[in-house]
Design a protein that fits this description.
By secondary structure, the chain is an alpha+beta fold. About 25% of the residues lie in helices and about 40% in strands. A hairpin with a 5-residue loop joins β4 and β5.
């Protein structure tokens, strides 16, 4: 599984109410998804074709951790079809409360 951590909210990645900004959440979720794809396939040449994020609750406490898992990797690797990834971001300092979830479809673009 892929993982990305954000240790704390800084002014550069804070929302107006001092929570982790939605942009930083999306970037961390996508980075975790790409890490999971690389670990599963050994390649980084993927293009996102579909990206859906559901924001659940703001994150304040820290650290914030995005984890992603490739879904159906073996079948997708054989057939060259889209590869699904599920990801979740949690606020580890707030009893691992879920902040956001993501589902994505990627396609390999290189070879």
């Amino acid at each position: 599984a892929g993982e990305r951590r954000i240790e704390k909210v800084t002014p550069a990645i804070a929302s107006p109410h001092a929570a982790l900004h939605l942009g930083a959440i999306n970037i961390a979720l996508e980075a975790a998804a790409m890490d999971a794809l690389e670990q599963t396939s050994g390649a980084r040449d993927f293009q996102v074709e579909q990206w859906s994020v559901m924001m659940v609750k703001p994150g304040y406490t820290r650290p914030f951790v995005a984890r992603a898992t490739v879904i159906g990797a073996a079948r997708a690797a054989r057939s060259g079809v889209r590869i699904g990834v599920e990801a979740v971001m949690t606020d580890e300092g707030a009893k691992c409360r879920i902040m956001a979830t993501a589902s994505a479809a990627f396609r390999r673009v290189g070879g």
